[in-house]
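in:
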C-alpha cells in the first residue's frame, strides 16, 4: 500500500445524506438515490481542466456535522454520497450541501481489503492521529479509481 499526502483546501459536496441510524445498507441506498437523480445536480458539479468531474465523494462526519470521525469505534455517523460542487452552488430540494474544511490528508488507493484498519495502524506507527472524519473519493479522471482520505491536520 502506497501512502501519499496532500493538502486540500475547503471544498463543497452536494449529495444525498444519511446516517448509520438508517440501518444496514444505507450507504448503498444513498448512492443509488444520488446516481439515479444525478441530472438534478450535474450542472453544479465542479470540473477539472479537462472537463472531467472534479470528484465523487463519500463524505463522512459525526452526528454534529463537525466533520469529526464517526463515533463508537467508527460505527456511527453521517454519510454524504455526492459530487464535488462549486462553493457558491446551492443544493436543490432533496439534496444536501456540505462544505468540508481544509485539511492535510494521508490518502491511499482503496484497492485492498480492510484499507481503513491498515491505514489507522500505519498512522499509529507514525505517531499520526485523525484530525477529522475519513472520506471516500472516486476520481473520474482515473476511471473512478477509489481512494480513502484520512485528515491528519486541520488547516
Amino acid at each position: 500500500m502506497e501512502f501519499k499526502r496532500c493538502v486540500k483546501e475547503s471544498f463543497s459536496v452536494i449529495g444525498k445524506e444519511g446516517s448509520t441510524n438508517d440501518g444496514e445498507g444505507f450507504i448503498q441506498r444513498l448512492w443509488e438515490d444520488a446516481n439515479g437523480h444525478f441530472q438534478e445536480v450535474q450542472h453544479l458539479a465542479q470540473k477539472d481542466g479537462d472537463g472531467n468531474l472534479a470528484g465523487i465523494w463519500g463524505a463522512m462526519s459525526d452526528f454534529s456535522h463537525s466533520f469529526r470521525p464517526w463515533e463508537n469505534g467508527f460505527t456511527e455517523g453521517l454519510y454524504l454520497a455526492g459530487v464535488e460542487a462549486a462553493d457558491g452552488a446551492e443544493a436543490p430540494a432533496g439534496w444536501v450541501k456540505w462544505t468540508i474544511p481544509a485539511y492535510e490528508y494521508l490518502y491511499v488507493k482503496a484497492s485492498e481489503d480492510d484499507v481503513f484498519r491498515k491505514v489507522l495502524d500505519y498512522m499509529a506507527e507514525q505517531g499520526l492521529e485523525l484530525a477529522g472524519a475519513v472520506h471516500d473519493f472516486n476520481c473520474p479522471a482515473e476511471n473512478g479509481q477509489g481512494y480513502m482520505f484520512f485528515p491528519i491536520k486541520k488547516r
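note: The first helix runs from residue 26 to 36.
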